[in-house]
TrEMBL record:
This is HIT domain-containing protein. It comes from Collinsella tanakaei YIT 12063. A motif (Histidine triad motif) lies at residues 95-99. Gene3D superfamilies: HIT-like. GO terms for molecular function: catalytic activity. The active site is at 97 (tele-amp-histidine intermediate). Residues 5-111 form the HIT domain.
């Protein structure tokens, strides 16, 4: 996708603070962190969201990347994973991504 900012980050055409990377996924710190740890995990290939036909091996690589982020960031007490999907959820970047949030008590409320 030519105009997709996350495709450009995945291709290292836009700089980011990379936390983890392999052939299928890349994890990098969010530009506007909402918690002490706020890292995004994205597939290198473009999918609009979590239900846009993402292959099982890519989903598995994403979950593995989440655990690599948790390890790298020392999130031993736990963390939250969020995948905003579509307008109702306020998805602003339409390239599938998982937010990994942690480093402070996050509270019980999801919204
Ligand atoms: P969404 O609301 O779509 O779930 O979240 C998109 C996230 O991407 C936001 O938390 C926003 O701060 C982050 N973001 C948007 N553009 C960039 C960017 O160019 N670099 C980085 N590192 N994060 C970005
Ligand atoms: Zn993209």
């Amino acid at each position: 996708m030519d105009d997709c900012i996350f495709c450009k980050i995945a291709a290292h055409q836009i700089p980011s603070t990379v936390v983890y990377e392999d052939d299928k996924v890349i994890a990098f710190d969010d530009l506007a962190p909402q918690a002490p740890v706020h890292t995004l995990v994205i597939p290198k290939d473009h999918y609009a969201n979590i239900i846009d036909g993402v292959p099982a091996d890519v989903l598995a690589a994403m979950v593995n990347a989440v655990s690599e982020v948790a390890r790298a960031k020392g999130l031993d007490d736990g963390f939250r994973v969020i995948a905003n999907t579509g307008e109702v959820a306020g998805q602003t970047v339409h390239h599938f991504h998982m937010h990994v949030l942690g480093g402070k008590p996050l509270g019980e409320n999801l919204v």
